[in-house]
Amino acid sequence: MSTPVISAREAEVLALLGEHLSNAEISAQLFISVRTVESHVSALLRKLGAPDRRALSRRAADLAHAGRTCPAPALPTPLTAFVGRTRERADLAEAVKARRLVTAVGPGGVGKTRLALAVAAQAAGDFPDGVWFVDLAPVTDPGRVGAAVAATVGTGEQPGRGVDETVLAALADHRALLVLDNCEQVIDGVSPFLERLLTACPGVQVLATSRARMLVPFEWAFEVPPMSWADGKESDAVALFVERAAAAGRAPDASAREDVATLCAGLDGMALAIELAAARYPALGLPGLTAGLTDQLRMLAGGPRAHDRHRSVGAALDWSHDLLEPWDRALLRRISVFAAPFTAEAAAVVAAFAPLDSAAVADGLGRLAEQSLLTATPSPSGVRYRALETVRQYGTRRLADADELTDVRARHLGWCLTAASDLEDARPAALSAEFVDEGRWARFDATADDLRTALAWAAHRPERREDACRLALSLAGLAFARTLVGEAQQRFEQAAALADAAGDPAGAAAALRRAAAQHGLPEVVLTLVHGFDACV
Predict the structure, then answer these.
(1) How far apart are the first and last CA of the chain?
(2) What is the β-pairing status of strands 204-210 and 384-386?
(3) How far, CA to CA in Å, does 95 sit from each of 82, 89, 497?
(4) Is 442 strand, coil or helix?
(5) Three-state DSSP class for 24?
(6) Do the beta carbons of residue 205 and residue 177 sit within 8 Å?
(7) pLDDT, tens digit, for every residue of 173-216?
(8) Which of 52, 60, 288, 471 has the fewest CB atoms within 10 Å, counting from its CB?
(9) What value does the CA radius of gyration of the chain take, rounded to a whole number of Å?
(10) CB neighbour list of residue 159: distance below 8 Å, 6 or more residues apart
(11) pTM of the predicted model, to two decimals?
(12) What are the strands, taking DSSP E only, across 211-255?
């Protein structure tokens, strides 16, 4: 028969009843009122089917004598409804049934804890001895992981035994699910503890949440994705926004749901960001929230959260950032200048200066991906890395704080100039024009957003005007050849304005003509050249 579920406080009262303390003594020891003690005793009598107080004392004494734990306390009850994630919930529940150790992995704010709680509550009936939930967020010493589990399980140290050994002995014959939340900051302590636990307690299974894998035997990693927005107004992301906005006082009309979907896409589907944005919807409306996407870290602040690190997106990222080694912090902020997915080679050009070299950059990218701060995707040109927009904005702030923003932007500009030049040189040969063009334009499409970002930065810096004009001319020719005629004209006009500001319009006009000839551009471009001449 399953052990009745009692609260953590009731478990404490039960243990003190086993020591034959009076209600007044229990009240003094737990710092609660006598009336509250009486309420807990009544609940224990009902839940445990005990006829009187002495029977409760015997029950507690029997548990202590047998070296067993107190009954599993109830899982934390979130104050808001769980929304969506039907597929993820089913897949994670199936993994928990089939595996001894499952780690729900993902970046801060993606919704790992809520998903784990939902799955644990669903699976509770499959574990006769219940589900134990341990929040490791307050634990800073890796050596105290076992003590945190012991505090939840209700065991203490025994003579001649350390706390870890006591926990393992107490759980040895249990069939229970242990949920370890927020493992990332003490992962060096969690990993060895779990290896011992899984060996010594064959009936115990573990569901962990973490930014990174445990890297222990038998681990099954489950990547928690952002909330889906692919189905537009019918998506999980929109459903979450609408539910939380309604709780805040005003839900968006059905006619605005497509705009909500666009907003959720701009938030990368991050559950925490969506919830914080929804909380501000009654005050800002969709136009205000959409305008605020340019500074998500400032806009998405506030909200009643149990931990400070969840009070804003910035606080959640601070938590993740503080757990990194110094060289990985440097890499995270430096690669924030990339607007599109990038390769390790590109990152080395931009980020490899003291204290990082090229090898450290390549290693660091892997570690940041393992920590869920980057995504890694295979491509024909090699693995490409990408940071969520919120992480990029956070990294840019850290770059400014480290007084590296100008230097790293300049290195990124240099990389973009080289990339544009390589694309210009990769004109197709007659015998393989279609094949070469296909690869060339795939490279352009993968690089274009970075070229535009670097140009936007350089165009507003007088000392970079010459580089900006050169990049504008390259981007103009490439855009035209890619049949982006409107952008080509915009870039030619931008080059004209930059040349005029630099005081060398004639030289820039000649450079434009050379660029047009290099790309074999037709007469329509000559019209742009004439327009350029008129401008200068």
Answers:
(1) 89
(2) unpaired
(3) 20, 10, 60
(4) helix
(5) helix
(6) yes
(7) 888 899 998 888 788 899 999 999 999 889 999 999 998 888 88
(8) 52
(9) 30
(10) none
(11) 0.60
(12) 219-223
